[in-house]
Amino acid sequence: MVRRRIAVLFTIGLALTACGSSSSSKAPTRDELVKQIVESGGVSEEVAGCAADALFTSLSAGDLKLVMAGKEPSAGGKTAFTNAVLDCLTPTS
């Protein structure tokens, strides 16, 4: 299960980089981001939606701009986003 979580986190990171490195300067919408994560990550739409929400709620405006530009967020932003995405991958019962 831990390997799957790491793989999903890595894939979500790649999806975000792909969104950020597009030729368009506008930030993707939530739906565009969800679609990109599903297509590149092979995760459910529910997990992708949670990850997209985590991106917008866990990163500061400055970190979000960095990610959308295809760059790394601050260390604090990375930690907050990683923790939020891990919550997406943890089954609730």
Question: How many domains make up the 3D coordinates?
Answer: 1
Q: How many strands?
A: 0
Strand/helix succession: HHHHH
Overall pLDDT metric: 75
Quickly give the structural class.
mainly alpha
Unreliable stretches covering 5 or more consecutive residues: none
Oligomer: single chain
Count of DSSP H/I helices = 5
Helix content: over 70%
Describe the protein in words.
There is one protein chain. By secondary structure, this protein is mainly α. The chain has one domain. Helices cover 73% and strands 0% of the residues. It contains five helices and no strands. The longest helix has 19 residues, at 2-20. The protein is globular, with a radius of gyration of 12 Å. The two termini are 17 Å apart.
Topology:
Elements: H1 2-20, H2 30-41, H3 45-58, H4 61-68, H5 75-89
How would you summarize what this structure contains?
Helices cover 73% and strands 0% of the residues.
